[in-house]
Amino acid sequence: MLSDPGPSVDGRSTTRDTMSESLDYKRDFEEQSESVEVVDASDLARDSVRPPIDWSSPAAFTSSSWARWKSIWTRRFMLSLLAGQVVSLCITVTNVTTTELVSRNWSLPTTQTWFLYFSLFIIYTPYTMYKYGLKGWGQMVYRDGWKYFFLAACDVEGNFLVVKAYNYTDLLSCMLLDAWAIPVCLFFCWVYMRTKYHWTQLLGVLVCVGGLGMLVASDMLTDKNYPALSRGKGDAFMIVGATLYGFTNATEEFFVRRSPLYEVVGQLGMWGTLINGIQAASLEHVDMTTASWNGATIGFLVAYTAAMFILYTTAPLLYRMASSAFYNISLLTSDFYGLIFGLFLFHFSPYWLYFPAFCIVVLGLIIYFWHATPEEQGKLDPKAPAYIRRFHQDDQV
Asked: Which of 26, 52, 124, 255: CA 20 to 30 A from 7?
């Protein structure tokens, strides 16, 4: 007896159709993954070259200079300039709140920054788990956690050493040596991304440092300096701390240009919470019991943590839009914002050099991108690790 061939043919057809759909889906997924646009600095450089300066005649020079000036003010540059002033203002807020905490018998610098790392951890790490899945997040920590641990360790110790430096050396040394982070950052950006610096960028850095010199002179003329307890030790702390700052800024830029922001910042928060917590428990466990814990200190601590959270969230965006070097020179305007806070909170009398110094630093920021463009600073290709993408492909197929 011959069996009815209908159901058998339909069953093979259904199975074949299902396998075909699955393979088509897999091919579509792979094509989408491979079609992600990689933003290469060399490609963007061709599309965003500054108009050349024409030296043939005064009229041509004026016209070409005006065209160059207008070419600077792109949406990306203006957002970078704004973000740089946001992080500079955040630095000022952290200085003011720390001063207020110390004046209220609450001086726990390591404990103070623990709340920052913990806030980064509890906000960005759960989102990373949501994007990668719990197993994918575990794979990321297992494979790449070591580099984020090293980044967090350098960041924690940089913060610790700079705070310690203020306890031993004078204000003049702290302000000048803190600028050492700029050349360190430039060097490591070159090491990681082979950034080609134009001489106008170096000129922009020098102009910004000149503005810093005017701010330092203002503080010296108004007798804001204080005696050094141990200048050699304090200067050494500041140099090492500034070196770690420059290194971590450049390293974080390298990471966020290749990985999602939530992964990098979440890992920085997780390992920073662990490292900073151990250090705080070791060094400040006695002072925690004698510090003044009241509504005012908690309020200033919340303000400090909020300002630092905004800074650590905005900084990676600025690294992508411009560079970590641009971030560092943007911070040189923070003393001007400190003066604004001082006028209202501490009744400071402004010295006239503060205002031209601020303008000179901003001028240096513009000169930094007079010839080079933000797009030329490095390749921008943020995506999840390849093993995470393969893991999700296998699950969906």
From this structure: 26
Q: How many CA atoms lie within 13 A of 165 on its CB side?
A: 23
CA distances from 375 to 193, 320, 324 (A): 13, 9, 13
Sign of CA dihedral 269, 273, 275, 280: positive
Q: How far apart are CA 113 and CA 299, in angstroms?
A: 15
* Those residues with Cβ within 8 angstroms of residue 72's Cβ, 6 or more apart along the chain or in another chain: 50, 366, 369, 370
DSSP 284: S
Q: At what angle do helices 171-178 and 134-168 cross, to 10 degrees?
A: 140
With 0-12 / 13-18 / 19 or more C-beta atoms within 10 angstroms meaning exposed / middle / buried, residue 363 is middle
Q: 224 near 353, Cβ under 8 Å?
A: no
State the Cα–Cα distance between residues 365 and 363, nearest whole angstrom: 5
The pTM of the full predicted model, rounded to 2 decimals, is 0.84
DSSP bridge partners of 39: 380
Residues in the chain, total: 397
Residue 39 CB neighbours (<10 A)? 14
List pLDDT tens digits, range 224-268: 656 767 778 888 988 999 999 999 999 999 999 999 999 999 999
Q: Provide the token pair at 239.
A: 């140099």
What CA–CA distances, in Å, run from 271 to 116, 118, 139?
Answer: 12, 9, 16
Q: Which of 247, 378, 275 is nearest to 323 (CA)?
A: 378
**At residue 124, does pLDDT exceed 80?**
yes
Tokens of 357: 């110094």
